[in-house]
Amino acid sequence: SQRACARWVCIASAVMSTPVRALASLRSLPSTATARTAGRCPGSLFTRDPGESLVPACAELGTGVVAYSPLGRGFLTGVYISTDGLAPDDFRQAIPRFRGESATHNAGLLKPIQQIADNHGATTGQVALAWLIHQSRAHGTTAVPIPGTKRAARVEENAGAVRIQLTAEDLAALDPIAGQVSGAARPDLPPDLQRMMTGAEQ
Questions:
Q1: 167 to each of 106, 109, 130, 134, 174, how far by Cα in Å?
Q2: Are 128 and 145 spatial neighbours (Cβ–Cβ below 8 Å)?
Q3: Could you point out which of 33, 89, 145, 198 has its C-alpha 20 to 30 Å from the C-alpha of 169?
Q4: What is the pTM of this model?
Q5: Rounded to 5 degrees, what are φ and ψ at 117?
Q6: pLDDT tens digit string along 75-116?
């Protein structure tokens, strides 16, 4: 007989049609094998895919979602909107959406977020997190955003997002933003590595 050892399983960065297949395969394991399952992927106002396919899949299978980079690597806070001020070895120096014309364009996308934040007495980062939480609830599942921070004050600020109740008007203003973002979310990679990454996601 087989003995299952895994109690918690997470599908990381599943993309496109993969989430349904991967999470369904977990559900087919013996009942002793998995106590919890979750899908993990990038998700924010700036980055929808693979979240757009993963969130409905998780809802269908009764699992949660762990959303990393929910603040767009800090861009959605309004603090880091270009490579200016970043340390020379900061990996965001290599991310196209933080550079040049793309950064200028993307900074303009923060205007409606800032307006909504002002209306709610919140920060743009809190609005971004509140939107993510709303999206998961709308699909009938739970998203746990995991923004990175080094300061306790930022943890408290991020936690305050759960108190924000976005209106239908707010959501209508926020939903189109991802489709307007300029520049890739990942650092520029050598051609060979790009082909490897693309092949892994197909």
A1: 23, 19, 11, 10, 11
A2: no
A3: 145
A4: 0.76
A5: -60, -45
A6: 999 999 999 989 999 989 999 999 999 999 999 999 999 999
Q: What is the chain's Cα-based Rg?
A: 18
Is the pLDDT at 145 greater than 80? The verdict is yes
| DSSP at 33 | T
CB 4 within 8 A of CB 40: no
List the helix and strand counts (H, then E) for the chain.
8, 4
As a whole number of angstroms, the distance between CA 180 and CA 123 comes to 21
Helix 51-61 × helix 18-27 angle, to 10°: 20
Alpha-carbon distances, residue 115 vs 1, 10, 170, 186 (angstroms): 60, 36, 9, 28
Place of tokens 């309004």: 78
Q: How confident is the model at residue 200 (pLDDT cuts 50, 70, 90)?
A: very low
- Identify the residue whose tokens are 């919140």: 122
Q: Position 109: which residue type?
A: L
Burial of 138 (0-12, 13-18, 19+ CB in 10 A): exposed
Q: How many CB atoms lie within 10 A of CB 2?
A: 8
